[in-house]
């Protein structure tokens, strides 16, 4: 990553946590261009997009946006929203599951209550035969997120998994241990601002680490979601699986809503399981900023859409 791109990414990721910028963006709704990455502000919006994607052969994971809340009342609100979401997925026969962020359930405020809220969602999902993925946030929450998943599994919930980020030094060991425990993982490059003390900051090294993690997971046969828009890594996964005789039933590709849709469709057509991550809700601002930070060209796209009004 060149120095300009690194500074740009760091400055934007700094803005993701900025309350004033968040409040300002909220005022203008999805009109600033966030609609390209967010399925809408309501559950109905998200369900409509989910059905469209399903009709095109793509599964979904629905994410009710929200993170870093400031009261446990907000956590309760998220829990209620996820309960309703699960019921809707079930009732409408949507091919999908849900992803949630532990800080949205109060991980930074009260770990015990947070665990109870997430447990209720996982139990409800279990009743419907649905899966719950705990997204991975920034590194202060890695241990607690993994511990939550382990605890739920120890209680007999097999419908829960989490995410491992290739930019963290610790991830190789985490993948090794979690694979031995048979835990369902999504592998990603990593989207947060992290210090050099915990994460690689070279794109080349992160990409190489992701490939290593993919190989380790495929060899373990534990179910894995390869979540990337990087075609070279997708090709690497396909070829690794082919040469090692690893069945397609033990992995899937995941991409974000609104990004590389033609590639999502092409992979689904080739017979791979493809899942689109569909976020919705009013708290879209930090999610949107992370998408901008991933690709400088996105900012040009947004500026153009604002000034062409
Ligand atoms: P990379 O950034 O190298 O991009 C490869 C190519 O994809 C780019 O050249 C571009 O063409 C396209 N692309 C990538 N990002 C784009 C964007 N924002 N807009 C337009 N085009 C783009 N992270 C995390 O820390 N915790 C998590 O729980 C998750 N969860 C998650 C779920 C799913 C389904 C996905 C796909 C991703 C995540 N991530 C995540 C985000 C992940 O860590 C990473 O930041 C992004 O996926 C971007 O990295 P790529 O692997 O796509 O590669």
From TrEMBL:
<keyword id="KW-0560">Oxidoreductase</keyword>
<dbReference type="InterPro" id="IPR029041">
    <property type="entry name" value="FAD-linked_oxidoreductase-like"/>
</dbReference>
<dbReference type="InterPro" id="IPR002872">
    <property type="entry name" value="Proline_DH_dom"/>
</dbReference>
<keyword id="KW-0642">Proline metabolism</keyword>
<dbReference type="InterPro" id="IPR015659">
    <property type="entry name" value="Proline_oxidase"/>
</dbReference>
<keyword id="KW-0285">Flavoprotein</keyword>
<dbReference type="GO" id="GO:0004657">
    <property type="term" value="F:proline dehydrogenase activity"/>
</dbReference>
<feature type="domain" description="Proline dehydrogenase">
    <location>
        <begin position="47"/>
        <end position="302"/>
    </location>
</feature>
<dbReference type="InterPro" id="IPR008219">
    <property type="entry name" value="PRODH_bac_arc"/>
</dbReference>
<dbReference type="Pfam" id="PF01619">
    <property type="entry name" value="Pro_dh"/>
</dbReference>
<keyword id="KW-0547">Nucleotide-binding</keyword>
<comment type="pathway">
    <text>Amino-acid degradation; L-proline degradation into L-glutamate; L-glutamate from L-proline: step 1/2.</text>
</comment>
<protein>
    <recommendedName>
        <fullName>proline dehydrogenase</fullName>
        <ecNumber>1.5.5.2</ecNumber>
    </recommendedName>
</protein>
<keyword id="KW-0274">FAD</keyword>
């Amino acid at each position: 990553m060149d120095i300009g791109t690194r500074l740009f990414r760091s400055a934007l990721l700094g803005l993701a946590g900025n309350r004033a910028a968040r409040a300002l963006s909220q005022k203008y709704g999805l009109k600033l261009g966030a609609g390209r990455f967010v399925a809408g502000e309501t559950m109905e919006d998200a369900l409509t997009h989910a059905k469209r994607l399903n009709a095109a052969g793509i599964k979904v994971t629905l994410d009710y946006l929200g993170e870093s809340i400031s009261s446990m009342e907000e956590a309760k609100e998220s829990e209620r929203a996820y309960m309703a979401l699960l019921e809707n997925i079930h009732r409408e026969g949507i091919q999908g599951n849900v992803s949630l962020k532990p800080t949205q359930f109060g991980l930074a405020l009260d770990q015990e209550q947070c665990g109870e809220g997430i447990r209720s969602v996982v139990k409800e999902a279990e009743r419907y035969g649905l899966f719950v993925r705990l997204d991975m946030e920034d590194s202060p929450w890695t241990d607690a997120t993994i511990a939550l998943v382990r605890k739920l599994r120890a209680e007999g919930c097999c419908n829960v998994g989490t995410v491992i980020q290739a930019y963290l030094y610790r991830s190789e060991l985490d993948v090794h241990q979690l694979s031995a425990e048979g835990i369902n993982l999504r592998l990603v490059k990593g989207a947060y601002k992290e210090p050099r003390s915990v994460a690689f900051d070279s794109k080349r090294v992160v990409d190489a680490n992701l490939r290593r993690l993919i190989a380790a997971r495929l060899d373990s046969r534990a179910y894995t979601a390869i979540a990337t828009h990087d075609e070279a890594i997708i090709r690497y996964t396909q070829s690794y699986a082919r040469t090692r005789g690893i069945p397609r039933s033990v992995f899937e590709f995941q991409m974000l809503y609104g990004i590389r849709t033609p590639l999502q469709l092409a992979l689904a057509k080739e017979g791979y399981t493809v899942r689109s991550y569909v976020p919705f809700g009013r708290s879209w601002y930090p999610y949107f900023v992370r998408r901008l930070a991933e690709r400088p060209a996105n900012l040009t796209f947004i500026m153009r859409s604002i000034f062409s009004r």
